[in-house]
Amino acid sequence: MAQQEKLLSEISEMWDIYNKCMPDIARTYDELPMEVYKDGVLSGRIKRLMAIVGALVHGCRACILFQTEEALSLGATAEEILEACAVAISLGGTMGAGETTRVVQFLEEKGLLEELMKDS
Fold first, then answer.
1. Structural domains for the chain
2. pLDDT at 115
């Protein structure tokens, strides 16, 4: 398993343990994102791209990987994700740029950048 994918898996495993230890908190915590990220005026895909920007600017590695994975599962392309990263770089400067490398590595591990790299 690649580095960022392994990290996401480890974070998920630890979160699952926390959820088993604190089921009432976990259930309450999960309700808000389920409501927020469902399709509305904005699609869930667009909301996940927005969340990637927030995660990058804030520097939350778990959020960065989770939101990127969720955006991909909702049909976001690598190009859309990288464009969202550009917004984070514009807003967050060095912090956004540094954390964007985590997204690039994650997309590369999934083989999603080959086509974009070929066009360059």
1. 3-119 (1.20.1290.10)
2. 86
